[in-house]
């Protein structure tokens, strides 16, 4: 773009995690703002003014606001973008004598780590930035295309989130995914979890970073160990697994509650109501009591454990190792069976309704019949013919919304609709509820990419969160 003037600013404060740029270009009556994370293309917004003088005045105001917040002139390209670690894993053939009863297999086309299975759908995310949803019989329902590789998929009640290598966490709960959180640039993400709208991130350096529903930093702790592949959260604590064990922190303020060394560095974590499960590099899964950190049981595998999961209440414990095998244990640690996956090592897994869903090193989502009858038959060498799932010819595909233009508009609010409004609160944009029956003082967790001061929006539903704010469920429409 040929512009009369361009001002480029950066805010890079490694201790605070800021690593952003802000560029303002004036071209006649038009002012174009480009902003985002250093090293990325960012988002662009253009406004047109009645005169060139008003355009220059508006640009100067925008620049002044950023300078007062700590932004300074810089040269594009001099600072490096955020660090990204790709998980490097090895997978060898299984030593099991029999193969698991695989019902169906869906090949995503790229290495995959993210999995979530709920009442209606199976979700899988891969390193290419694709997230697919399937029904429980393997029918592919939709595809989300995200800007960078998917690190993991997590659920927080109804809401589904994808943590990606661009440092953003995308809300996939409606048709249009939105960037709900923007993680600090000095955090080299390994894993994340979200509880009641609060984001907990573990990273390569072994740190734990906590970000609230307004995408604002709350607290961080330098972990007791590096390579933190596990983070799980509930009302009582945040459970952080790293190469020296598992540490529990108080969710409000981050005070350490307990620390327990594990047998080997933690490579994966799972949780039930009263226990957390740590899969380790030393070939075990260990069950730790949430209230004390005491090790209650150990589940011995034959190779490093890449993934683990349980049936409800921890009745059965499942594990996937580096040698393409999957295991089932009784609660007390007795091994019930070991079977080959038939296609790579499981990097994430989840059990639901008698089936074990795996994401493997070859980028496949695999559905295994984990019933006693099917497993017994598999041990005798009888397995079903696994169905290879194919993509539909016309698959619904959704990409992130990048601005207000991506949101549908309404000329007026329908009768009984829930209306929220974006307001300026000091130097920040907040969203509050306008409709009656809600607490107008509470903030609404709302996508930053579409916030505009003074603009009202219609939302499908609002749900109160324990932290004293509302969460949007369903679609968002902009009122004209």
Proportion in β-strands = over 45%
Span of the ends, CA to CA: 30 Å
Which stretches of 5+ consecutive residues score pLDDT under 50?
none
Shape designation = globular
Count of alpha and pi helical runs:
2
Structural class: mainly beta
- Write down the overall mean pLDDT: 90
| Rg computed from alpha carbons, rounded to a whole number of angstroms | 24 Å
What kind of sheet is the major sheet? 6 strands, mixed
- Secondary structure: helix percent: under 10%
List keywords for this structure.
480 residues; five-stranded antiparallel sheet; 2 helices; mainly beta; six-stranded mixed sheet
Concise summary:
The chain is built from two helices and 41 strands.
Q: Could you walk me through the main structural features you see in this protein, from its secondary elements to its overall organization?
A:
There is one protein chain. With 480 residues, the chain is mainly β. The strands form nine sheets. Strands 36, 37, 38, 39, 40 and 41 form a six-stranded mixed sheet that branches. A five-stranded antiparallel sheet has the order 4-3-2-1-5, with helices on one face. Strands 31-32-33-6-34 form a five-stranded mixed sheet, with no helix packed on it. The chain has two helices and 41 strands.
């Amino acid at each position: 773009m040929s512009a009369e003037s361009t001002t480029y600013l950066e805010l890079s404060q490694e201790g605070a995690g800021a690593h952003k740029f802000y560029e303002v270009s004036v071209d006649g009556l038009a002012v174009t703002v480009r902003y985002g994370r250093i090293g990325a293309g960012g988002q662009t917004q253009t406004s047109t003014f009645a005169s060139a003088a008003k355009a220059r005045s508006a640009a100067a105001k925008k620049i002044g606001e950023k300078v007062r917040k700590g932004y300074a002139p810089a040269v594009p390209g001099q600072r490096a973008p955020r660090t990204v670690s790709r998980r490097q894993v090895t997978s060898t053939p299984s030593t099991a004598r029999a193969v698991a009863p695989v019902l169906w297999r869906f090949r995503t086309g790229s290495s995959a780590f993210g999995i979530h299975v709920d009442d209606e759908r199976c979700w899988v995310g891969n390193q290419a930035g694709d997230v697919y949803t399937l029904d429980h019989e393997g029918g592919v329902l939709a595809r989300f295309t995200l800007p960078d590789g998917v690190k993991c998929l997590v659920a927080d009640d109804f809401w589904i989130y994808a943590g990606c290598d661009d440092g953003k966490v995308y809300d996939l709960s409606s048709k249009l995914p939105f960037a709900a959180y923007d993680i600090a640039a000095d955090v080299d993400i390994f894993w994340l979890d979200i509880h009641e709208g609060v984001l907990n991130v573990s990273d390569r350096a072994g740190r734990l970073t906590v970000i609230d529903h307004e995408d604002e930093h709350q607290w961080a702790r330098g972990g007791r160990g590096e390579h933190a592949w596990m983070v799980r959260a509930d009302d009582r604590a945040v459970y952080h697994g790293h190469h020296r064990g598992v540490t529990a922190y108080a969710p409000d303020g981050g005070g350490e509650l307990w620390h327990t060394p594990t047998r080997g560095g933690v490579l994966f974590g799972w949780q039930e109501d009263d226990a957390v499960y740590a899969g380790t590099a030393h070939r075990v899964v260990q069950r730790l009591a949430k209230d004390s950190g005491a090790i209650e049981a150990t589940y011995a595998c034959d190779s490093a454990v890449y993934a683990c999961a349980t049936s409800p209440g921890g009745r059965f414990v499942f594990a996937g190792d580096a040698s393409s095998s999957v295991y089932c244990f009784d609660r007390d640690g007795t091994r019930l069976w070991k079977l080959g996956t038939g296609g790579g090592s499981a990097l994430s897994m989840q059990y639901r309704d008698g089936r074990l869903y795996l994401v493997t090193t070859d980028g496949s989502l695999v559905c295994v019949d984990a019933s006693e009858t099917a497993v017994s038959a598999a041990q005798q060498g009888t397995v079903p013919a696994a169905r290879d799932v194919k993509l539909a010819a016309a698959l619904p595909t959704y990409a992130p919304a990048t601005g207000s233009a991506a949101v549908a508009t309404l000329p007026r609010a329908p009768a009984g609709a829930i209306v929220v409004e974006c307001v300026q609160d000091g130097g920040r944009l907040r969203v509050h509820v306008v409709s009656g029956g809600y607490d107008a003082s509470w903030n609404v967790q709302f996508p930053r990419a579409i916030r505009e001061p003074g603009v009202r929006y219609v939302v499908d539903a609002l749900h109160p969160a324990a932290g004293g704010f509302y969460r949007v469920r369903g679609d968002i429409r902009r009122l004209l």
